[in-house]
Amino acid sequence: MPKAYVFTRYGGPETEALVELDRPRPGPGEVLVAVRAAGVNPVDWKQRTGFRRPGESGERAFPVVLGNEAAGVVEETGEGVTGFAPGDEVFGNTVAGGYAEYALLAAGITAHKPAELSFTDAATLPVAAATAYDGVHQLGLPAGATLLVTGAGGGVGVAAAQIARALGLRVLGVASDGKKDLLESLGAVHVPSGDGWADAVRLTAPDGVDGVYDLVGGEVLHAAAGLVRDRARLITAGASPEDVERLGGARVGRARDAAVLRAVADLVVRGDLNPHVTLTFPLERAAEALHEVETGHARGKVVLEIGSPA
User: Fold this and answer.
1) CA-CA distance, 156 to 149, in Å (whole number)?
2) pLDDT digits over 109-149, tens only?
3) Are 240 and 214 within 8 A, CB to CB?
4) Dihedral angle at the C-alpha atoms of 72, 21, 45, 32, nearest 10 degrees?
5) 3-state class of 247 per DSSP?
6) What distance in Å separates the CA atoms of residue 182 and residue 246, rounded to the nearest whole number?
7) For position 308, what pLDDT does the model report?
8) Distance CA 275, CA 40 (A)
9) How far apart are CA 183 and CA 201, in angstroms?
10) Position 310 confidence tier, pLDDT thresholds 50, 70, 90
11) Which of 2, 116, 159, 283 could form a disulfide with 132 if both were Cys (CB 3.0 to 4.6 A apart)?
């Protein structure tokens, strides 16, 4: 039977297990893929603790396969699916977890993988890169404008900095000292996180910034709101809608469609976006991969390389 990495109840890493599950069957609007690679993201461990995205409802049926993005080869398509056929190389957002030898993808949030794009890089795009793309384009800043990104050293932040730079924006990235070299390699101005970061931004941009892409929330979001000239150009993927709306801003509006996936894949192929995959693990070491992300030790993206199931 195919293997999958799951959590069996809400809680910490002790709830995780590598198990054998029946091969899933695609329902209407779904695509079954033989997974070649699966991205590892903070949202994965947060869901294990019971976290739900805004608007999510309903109870999960345990065991739950971890993972929200994957790349692989189409095995079977569900009712009503067009544009995909067995043998197609694809990547997209999962319906029922990507840490597995077989996974279901939502056809509407699945795209064909360009031949020039590796499965490993493709598997990093549906969550972090797509979120970054949606947010940067939501702000709609003109070339030459200054964008402040808080939490810039994470997967979304690194992608947002690159997408913004490709659009001709000046990027100030708030991140730990350990991420300084990474951010500067992307063409961003590094602002050390911790006490005094907002004052450092004021010194670098004395007239304020043109837009804020917040990935932290809390006190950082409140401080960032005081730095942007127009609160309508304040967006967050790190705080609740209520928190940011009180400050005059908004949550990142996710398109969640194949067009965005194609757009970020094209950015990678053109060389404007580097997924920065720094660690890869086999499925049997999924616990280690998720631990790297959960503890914040990873620099860049972490990916499970699953290969061809028997």
Assistant:
1) 10
2) 999 999 999 999 999 999 999 999 999 999 999 999 999 99
3) no
4) 30
5) coil
6) 33
7) 57
8) 12
9) 15
10) very low
11) 159
